[in-house]
Amino acid sequence: MTDSVTAATAATNASSSSSSGNSKTLISNDFETFLRMLTTQLENQDPLNPMESSEYALQIATFSGVEQQVLTNDLLTNLTENLGGGGLSQYGSWVGMEAAAPVAVKYDGSTQLTILTEIEADASSAKLVVRNSEGSIVESREIDLPAETVTWPGESEAKADTYSFIVESYAADGSQMSETLGKVYAPIVEVRTEAGKVSVVFESGSIVNSNDVSALRDPV
Q1: Quick check: helix, strand or coil at residue 72?
Q2: Where is this region: Disordered (predicted)?
C-alpha cells in the first residue's frame, strides 16, 4: 500500500516538474494527478480502518482552493495588463502638447515663460529662484503676493539652457515655510507605462507621473 502511494506521489512530482505552458494547462494536469492519487488511496486503504469521508472532502477542498487562487492571480495579472495598456492609449494623445508640471524647461530667450506658483496660504513673502542646468542660481527675486502665476522673461545675457524654477514661501519672521518646484508649460515628447503607472517625458528630459500634470494646451 505504501509503495503504491509513494509511486503516485512520484508521478505527481514528475508531472509537476515536466509541465509547461500556461497555468490552466498546469491546473488541468495537476487535477488529473490529484484524482489518480485519490483513487490510489481508495484502492489501497485498510478495509478495517477506512479513511473518513471528511478527509476526502478536506483534500478536495484544499485542492479547489489552490486552483481558485491560481485562476484569481491570472485574472488580476490580465486586468493589470489591460489597464496599463488602456492608460497608455488614453495618454498617448498628450504627445506633442504642452503640459503644466513641476519640471525643468528648455529656454532660448525668445519668449516669456509662465510659472504656476504654489505659495503657502499664510505666507508673508515669497521668492522665485531660477537655476540653470548646472544648478547655479541665475536669478532670485521677490514675488508680489498674492500671485498664482509669475512670468520670467530671462536676463538679456541668459543663454539657451534648461532652467528650473523654485518657489520659496516665507513666514512673517523670515523663516522659510516651504520650497516647491514651480509648474511650467513644457512640450511632451513621450508617454510611457511601467508597473501600471503612466509617466510623462518632457523635452527637457524631465519625467513625472501623469498625476503631476495639472493642465494641457496646444503648443503656442
Answers
A1: helix
A2: 1-24
- CA 94, distance to chain mean position in Å, is 18
Q: What is the domain extent for residue 23?
A: 2-92
Of 92, 119, 137, which one is at a domain's C-terminal end? 92
Specify whether the backbone of 195 is left (phi greater than 0), alpha (psi in -120 to 50) or beta.
left
If phi > 0 it is left, if psi is from -120 to 50 it is alpha, else beta; for residue 90 that is alpha
- The answer on 190 and 99 residing in a single domain is yes
Reported as a single tens digit per residue, the pLDDT across 16-29 is 444 434 555 665 56
List CB contacts of 206: < 8 A, sequence separation 6 or more: 101, 103, 104, 186
Which residue's entry shows cell 481508495? 42
CA Rg value for the chain: 32
Backbone φ and ψ of 110, nearest 5°: -85, -20
Q: Assign 211 to helix, strand or coil.
A: helix
Dihedrals phi, psi of 118, to nearest 5 degrees: -130, 85
Cell 506633442 maps to which residue?
A: 96
Distance CA 125, CA 120 (A): 9
Cα 53 from Cα 67, distance rounded (Å):
21
* Domains of the chain: total: 2
Do residue 109 and residue 43 come from a single domain? no
